[in-house]
Amino acid sequence: MSNSNIPVHESTQREDSSSSPCSFSVEQGLELLRISGARLTSQRIAMLELFAHHSSHLTAQQVFEFLTENEPTLSRATVYNNLDLFEKFDILARYQSDNGDVYYDANTHPHHHMICTGCGTLHDVLIPQAAMDALLNSSVLCSPDGAHASTPLSAASIWFKGVCQGCQ
Q1: In CATH, what number is assigned to the domain containing residue 139?
Q2: ∠63-125-107 over CA atoms, to 5°?
Q3: What's the half-sphere exposure (Cβ side, CA atoms, 13 Å) at 143?
Q4: Alpha-carbon distance 57 to 47, whole Å?
Q5: What is the mean pLDDT of residues 82-100?
Q6: Number of helices followed by number of strands (H, E) in the chain
Q7: pLDDT tens across 31-74, in order?
Q8: Cβ neighbours of residue 70 under 8 Å, at least 6 residues apart?
């Protein structure tokens, strides 16, 4: 079953991030680091450039593999420490899938995700705010004793499974 009403933002090479609602720039990341008082090391700058010009969903291992070619002294600990720092200062968002994989995303705006069951690629899914508000305000909680109670929820992060356009 396909729902063409839900826009999926491909996690591919970014050519013009200024036109995307999910845009991210190295300058934005550098400014957030400056404000936080963090040092602007070559490794941090390389990581910002990676997220600005490549896939918006990367694991720590993928970041390490992409960057060690040009940053041979880069350690896994440095990657993890910088990803934690970037998350702390809202430069990146951290998402954990239902299978335990942790992804870092330069799109820190509220959005949801789809994992392609064909290729395993992670994609952004943008749901209109009115639809999310309706879902959050009409939710019913089920307690262990079987009781049900309507209660408004404040936020949600939804993970979809489907087949991306590249695999169709």
Answers
A1: 1.10.10.10
A2: 40
A3: 6
A4: 13
A5: 90
A6: 5, 9
A7: 989 998 999 999 999 999 999 887 668 999 999 999 998 888 99
A8: 46
